[in-house]
Amino acid sequence: MKLYTYYRSTSSYRVRIALALKGLSVQAVPINLLKGQQRQPDYLALNPQGRVPMLELDSGERLLQSPAIIEYLEECYPTPTLLVGDPLQRARARGVAALIGCDVHPLHNVSVLNRLREGGASDTQVAEWISHWISQGLAAVESMIGDQGYCLGALPGLADVYLIPQVYAAERFNVSLAAYPRIARVAALAAQHPAFIQAHPSRQVDTP
Length: 208
Ligand SMILES: N[C@@H](CCC(=O)N[C@@H](CS)C(=O)NCC(=O)O)C(=O)O
What we know:
Blueprint: E1 2-5, H1 10-21, E2 27-30, H2 41-46, E3 54-56, E4 62-64, H3 66-76, H4 87-104, H5 110-118, H6 123-144, H7 158-172, H8 181-190, H9 194-199
Parallel strand pairs: 1-2
Antiparallel strand pairs: 1-3, 3-4
């Protein structure tokens, strides 16, 4: 499999964690978002949305959208599972994932921030926008996760796959995490876990 990816893309990072937790290796194909490679015709021919991640299977089929890619991996490679527990526990994990994937990350995606700047927003206004949405989202996640271990249990799962890249984005944008001790605990655990270490933006083929 090939993963079209960018080292500090939040949604690519999610897929890298899921792959690493499942012990799957892929060939990374870097797409430099700062250089606009996602909008080049050759990439748009593969992925009309012009975003990463994209997973190309050995059959040549291409999968877009990190939730769909992660679900595909979960269905095809169910062990170890990212969704432990009963339907209620799994719904809780999916809730954290959806909150981050649908309600936080899209608001600080590069094309959204560029659109704000094109509309006249200053760097300060853009920074305030990012901080507002990340802080609001993380405050909600803080109340949705447990007091021990990873987000929702002793082992990492879907909620952690989404949370850790969002924490990385928060740090990159200088959003304080001081008010979120549970999230800080999960981040500290993940920082010691081989799969999360392997997936980290600092360890990718395109890391500057
Ligand atoms: N919902 C999509 C979001 C994908 C996405 O927005 N990717 C960003 C990087 S994290 C991107 O490629 N941005 C390029 C752009 O906006 O031009 C997913 O989860 O895969």
